[in-house]
């Protein structure tokens, strides 16, 4: 943080009920997650003067704030896909540091799975056909196909193998097996991933995230509120954001994600190096996202993500625990999952992750974590570096 400005901490985090939630509305999941996060912080809701939400309501986040009984004087409705919440956290931290808000609540909820089962919506194959996307949609270039094409390019350029990509899913499931809140916990093998039904070459079903219901909330506050909180603070050390492209023809390199920029900025602002990070929570709608984001955040060199992942480094007991709750591949994925990354990172730093708790040498808790969200088809990225104080 800039000298003379207030430090900012995450003081409350929570999930709503997740997985298979057939009876709740998205608004109810927002409210459930919000109430739990405020209770987790131990602060009175009256201190909340900032609110950030996206993805629900005609006037998001006005409708959600009204539903929660909030009348914020600072608001953010930035919507850049799955990275929305890391970008919002960056904006909220800047606002608090500058004195424009004291406590900002970030909240999300979705019944993506239940809506499909009830026939209220269909699967999302594209983001629409207006603007630049009109030149791709007629050719059937779906969201999953865009990621699959990028993965194939990485395989061609660097020799990345299907087995290496599959190892990402296997390790995510191993982490989920330790998480009682995860939707799928039964261990899987590389063969299970490779032999599954093809979704978009080279992705079989287990290369792709699950579809669930669920919500999450994160409460950030200025340093002077920390003494009144129930839980120890997790400080926002540095943030970065970046947008890259919408159309595939405007993406300079399919093997480089926008995390290459947002991560560099976040680490520079935090004053830490990637090799100092103890836990990484990375958006993983597909296995390739984890692999390429590891490269772009600087945990390994470009083209070495496959080798890095296949050595078992990503499990809770590994060299760099990644997606310790099981991620979007196994824990939950109700749409724009970026807020869940922040919740898990905070829980790890506070030592509240139960069986999946990461421990350093001597049983010490992790000290530094990074949460990096991705939106669209590598269209946007937000990265947040967090530290235990």
Give structural attributes.
globular, two-stranded antiparallel sheet, 32% helix, nine-stranded mixed sheet, single chain, alpha/beta, 389 residues
Can you put this structure into words, describing what you see?
This protein has helices spanning 26-41, 62-67, 84-98, 112-117, 143-158, 162-176, 190-194, 259-270, 287-296, 305-310, 327-330, 338-350; strands at 8-15, 50-52, 74-76, 103-110, 198-200, 203-204, 214-222, 234-243, 279-282, 368-375, 380-388. The protein starts with 7 loop residues before the first strand and ends with a strand. With 389 residues, it is an alpha/beta fold. α6 crosses α9. β10 (368-375) and β11 form a beta hairpin. The longest helix is centred in the N-terminal third of the chain and has 16 residues, at 26-41.
SSE blueprint:
Blueprint: E1 8-15, H1 26-41, E2 50-52, H2 62-67, E3 74-76, H3 84-98, E4 103-110, H4 112-117, H5 143-158, H6 162-176, H7 190-194, E5 198-200, E6 203-204, E7 214-222, E8 234-243, H8 259-270, E9 279-282, H9 287-296, H10 305-310, H11 327-330, H12 338-350, E10 368-375, E11 380-388
Parallel strand pairs: 2-3, 2-4, 9-10
Antiparallel strand pairs: 1-7, 1-8, 4-7, 5-6, 8-11, 10-11
Helix pairs in contact: 6-9
What is the terminal separation in angstroms?
Answer: 14 Å
Secondary-structure-based class equals alpha/beta
Whole-number mean pLDDT: 95
What percent strand? 15-25%
**From N to C, what is the helix and strand string?**
EHEHEHEHHHHEEEEHEHHHHEE
* Order of the strands making up the biggest sheet: 3-2-4-7-1-8-11-10-9
Shape: globular
Number of helices: 12
From the alpha carbons, calculate the radius of gyration and give it in angstroms: 19 Å
Uncertain regions: pLDDT < 50 for 5+ in a row?
Answer: none
Please bin the fraction of helical residues.
25-40%
Q: Give a count of the beta strands, DSSP E runs of length 2 or more.
A: 11
């Amino acid at each position: 943080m800039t000298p003379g400005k207030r430090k900012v901490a995450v003081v409350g985090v929570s999930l709503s009920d997740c997985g298979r939630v057939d009876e709740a509305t998205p608004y109810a999941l927002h409210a459930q997650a919000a109430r739990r996060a405020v209770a987790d912080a131990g602060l009175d809701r009256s201190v909340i003067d900032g609110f950030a939400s996206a993805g629900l309501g005609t006037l998001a986040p006005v409708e959600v704030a009204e539903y929660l009984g909030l009348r914020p004087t600072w608001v953010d409705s930035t919507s850049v896909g799955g990275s929305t919440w890391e970008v919002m956290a960056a904006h909220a931290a800047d606002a608090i540091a500058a004195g424009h808000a004291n406590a900002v609540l970030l909240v999300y909820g979705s019944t993506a799975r239940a809506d499909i089962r009830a026939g209220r919506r269909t699967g999302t194959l594209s983001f629409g056909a207006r603007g630049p996307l009109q030149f791709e949609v007629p050719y059937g270039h779906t969201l999953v196909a865009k990621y699959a094409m990028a993965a194939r390019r990485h395989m061609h350029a660097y020799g990345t193998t299907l087995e290496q990509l599959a190892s990402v899913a296997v390790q995510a499931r191993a982490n989920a097996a330790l998480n009682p809140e995860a939707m799928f916990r039964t261990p899987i093998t590389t063969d299970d991933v490779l032999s599954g039904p093809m979704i978009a070459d080279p992705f079989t079903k287990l290369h792709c995230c699950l579809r669930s219901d669920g919500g999450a909330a994160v409460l950030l506050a200025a340093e002077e509120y920390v003494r009144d909180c129930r839980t120890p603070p997790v400080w926002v050390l540095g943030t970065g954001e970046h947008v890259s492209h919408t159309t595939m023809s405007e993406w300079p390199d399919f093997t480089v994600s926008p995390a290459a920029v947002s991560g560099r900025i976040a680490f520079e602002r935090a004053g830490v190096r990637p090799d100092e990070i103890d836990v990484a929570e990375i958006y993983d709608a597909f296995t390739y996202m984890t692999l390429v984001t590891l490269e772009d955040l600087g945990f390994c060199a470009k083209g070495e993500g496959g080798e890095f992942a296949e050595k078992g480094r990503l499990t809770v007991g590994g060299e760099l625990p990644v997606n310790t709750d099981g991620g979007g591949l196994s824990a939950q994925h109700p749409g724009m999952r970026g807020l869940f990354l922040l919740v898990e990172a905070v829980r790890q730093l506070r030592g509240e992750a139960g069986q999946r708790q990461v421990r350093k040498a001597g049983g010490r808790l992790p000290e530094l974590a990074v949460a990096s969200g991705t939106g669209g088809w590598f269209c946007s990225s937000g990265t947040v570096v967090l530290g235990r104080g």
